[in-house]
Amino acid sequence: MKIVDGRVVVCSPGRNFVTLKLVTDNGTHGLGDATLNGRELAVVSYLEDHVLPLLIGRDPRRIEDTWQYLYKGAYWRRGPVTMAAIGAVDMALWDIQGKALGVPVYQLLGGPSRDRVLVYGHASGRDIDETLRAVERYRELGYQAIRVQCGIPGLEGTYGVGRGDLYYEPAEPGLPPERRWSTERYLDFVPELFDRVRAEFGPEPLFLHDAHHRLTPIEAARLGKSLEPYRLFWLEDPVPAELQEGFRLIRQHTTTPLAVGEVFNTVYDCQQLIHEQLIDYIRTTVAHAGGISHLRKIASLAELYQVRTGCHGATDLSPVCLAAALHFDLSVHNFGIQEYMRHSKETDLVFPHEYTLEGGTMHPGDAPGLGVDIDEELAAQYPYQRAYLPLNRKLDGTMHSW
Ligand code: EZ4
Ligand code: CO
To answer: Which of the listed CATH numbers 1.10.3720.10, 3.30.390.10, 1.10.287.1260, 3.40.50.720 matches domain 3-104?
Structure first.
């Protein structure tokens, strides 16, 4: 079998997506998601100008060799653009392999380790009352696990507060919007939020919270400690994780489980976090961390240290990535949870898929390959729209992590 054609489809059915399509000489094709939110066209160029010419004529069944060829062969290793491109190729090759053998990708990965994949939904509101109503809504829909985010009094446009029904999309068309931030106000407010949430919904639901890289280690330690009575499933991205040893300090102070990794690209970004057992969940994504092949290696390292997976699954991960993540989640032994944010109706129509959601759990389906396709004609009706994630400044104007 040979790869005979390849192209990159850029479309914006509600938001931007970059999709790699590889076509083989036996008439099948494979898809990979290469969307890098706010920097999409850099990956398009990487794939079109530098990767596709290398793939034509290659045997698509050489998945591991192709991964190493693109990783070692680039000389310039790692980084989000390179790893998103390699991730897309890897996803497409697993898709082709599954189709060629007539099995869903999870069967190629060792078969199912569980019946269905636990996912978490996203409840948010401008204030606590609105947030409680959103949590109630997810409970009614059968979600066992819910991330809870809330507007902070005195701060405009807090991270994680949704726009629209059961939907959260932080990227905005045009130039990046600027938000204001106060760590003091945030740290004072969040314990009150979870006090109200637990009082209203009792001990059973699993609750998660995302601090979105905004704290210092000692601030994160204080937050984790103050949330212990409410037994979070996890506290996500408490600090920007370039400084892996910073997690030692957080760990010394709190038993609140920690999750990190949605912006990581390789195992080297989390090697120390895992082997020192500084985290409980690793959130690397199929699309941004080198595909299914590399994510399995990260999961295998994590398994040795009792760290479980919790793949990123925001709306900027396309249905192709979500499908790939679900095959990975179903098969890998040390799976923890999968993030799930529903896509817009337009997105779901451009990417017809086999995966299903039921009672707060998902399944990738049993179609051969990844079980997701792209309607290229429909995609062409939604051209790329420049869009950026917001920026964040402290109240005095200093740039801060968003
Ligand atoms: O901000 O995917 O846990 N989910 C998140 C997301 C990220 C976006 C960035 O593109 O933190 O909302
Ligand atoms: Co996050």
So the answer is: 3.30.390.10
283, 313 contact by CB (below 8 A)? no
Burial class (CB in 10 A: 0-12, 13-18, 19+), 259: buried
For the chain, the first-to-last Cα distance in angstroms comes to 45
pLDDT digits (tens, 9 = 90+) for 214-249: 999 999 999 999 999 999 999 999 999 999 999 999
The pTM of this model reads 0.98
Ligand 1: centre distance to CA 100 (Å): 34
Other Cβ atoms less than 10 A from the Cβ of 160: the count is 18
Whole-angstrom distance, CA of residue 342 vs CA of residue 168: 9
CATH class of 108-368: alpha beta
Q: Where are the domains of the chain?
A: 3-104, 108-368
Closest Cα to residue 369, out of 182, 33, 40, 105? 105
The closest-lying atom of ligand 1 relative to the alpha carbon of residue 147 is 3
Tokens at residue 339, please? 């993030």
Cα 193 to ligand 2 centroid, rounded to whole Å: 18
